[in-house]
Amino acid sequence: MWVIRDTLGMTGTKYGCGIAQCGACTVLVDGQATRSCVTQADSVVGARITTIEAIEQDPVGRRVVEAWVGQQVPQCGYCQSGQVMAATALLQQTPKPTEEDIGAAMTNLCRCGTYNNIADAIRSAAAQG
Ligand code: FES
Ligand code: FES
Question: Which of 15, 22, 69, 76 to mutate to test the pocket of ligand 2 (most atoms within 8 A of CB)?
Fold first, then answer.
């Protein structure tokens, strides 16, 4: 995460807990939602890493962002880039997720409590797919 933020200057990826609990730092590593705060840079050499800055270049990611805007999901916004990354990974792998799939995939924490809006946005993005 610090390579992404400090070296590469892409500050959309957030630091929350630093111990793989909150998901604020989530990025995609070869399409898998990955908590970058506990990921060593040398462990992902050669992997394709996507951060929130590029998520709208992916059609699923764009749909997720549009649904996030449509549902007005963010409150303070701090957790939301990680939430969008987790939701995009879910819909890339499971385009029509069940409620159980959503619950299992969306383990990121939100101190503002936007969970219901997040679930609505994921349903909306899935319906558009
Ligand atoms: S900052 Fe990485 S999971 Fe919380
Ligand atoms: S929107 Fe504030 S922490 Fe999630």
Answer: 76
